[in-house]
Design a protein that fits this description.
By secondary structure, the chain is mainly alpha-helical. It is built from 4 helices and no strands.
Length: 193
């Protein structure tokens, strides 16, 4: 029974064939493309991971801000409801009491309470709108990060294909995918409010 070649013998034969049997520069170019494509795929994978972290953070922050905005809207609504209760109470007292001295004092208290709730609503309304704006901004960032991740993934696939088919054009396309991914991530990072 004949045994196979030892690993070092396979390497020696491959090197010998490379020196004697192939066109000069052809194998080096192939190795260079394979190496470049592998490094490109690895770098794009790292960038996709960074994009994924940014995307997840933006999505979570957007959801949190929207939840806080909903809480503020509920708080605003409760102040509005209390103000309306005092407004209706005032109208009932005014209708029942007429113009007596006790009624005027009660009406003033109702007016003061309604005015108090109207003043308290303003900053709540402003905060709710501010939180909604922040939430929308985070969702827009998430959108750009997601586009960047998709571009990086396309670049990784193209880099992998370039290793298999050994075409430099496919590798260049993987770089284009990576560049698009970087542009989308940058757009997300520097997106104004």
């Amino acid at each position: 029974m004949e045994e196979g070649l030892e690993p070092h013998e396979v390497i020696e034969r491959t090197v010998e064939q490379h020196h004697h049997g192939h066109k000069p520069g052809h194998a080096v170019e192939h190795w260079s493309l394979t190496t470049l494509a592998a490094i490109t795929a690895a770098m794009l994978a790292v960038l996709a991971a960074v994009g994924s972290l940014l995307s997840g953070h933006a999505a979570n922050t957007a959801i949190l801000k929207q939840s806080e905005a909903s809480d503020q809207w509920a708080y605003y609504q409760s102040k509005s409801t209390k103000g309306h209760i005092y407004e209706v109470g005032r109208e009932i007292i005014a209708a029942l009491a007429g113009s007596s001295g006790d009624a005027k004092a009660s009406l003033e208290r109702f007016d003061q309470q309604k005015s108090k709730y109207d003043k308290e609503k303003e900053p709540i309304l402003d905060r709710a709108k501010e939180l909604e704006t922040e939430s929308q901004h985070e969702f827009r960032q998430h959108h750009y990060y997601s586009l960047g991740i998709a571009s990086f993934q396309v670049g990784i696939v193209l880099a992998s294909i370039s290793i298999l088919v050994r075409h430099r054009a496919t590798w260049w396309l993987s770089l284009v995918g990576g560049l698009l991914g970087i542009l989308f991530l940058s757009r997300g990072l520097f997106l104004g409010p």
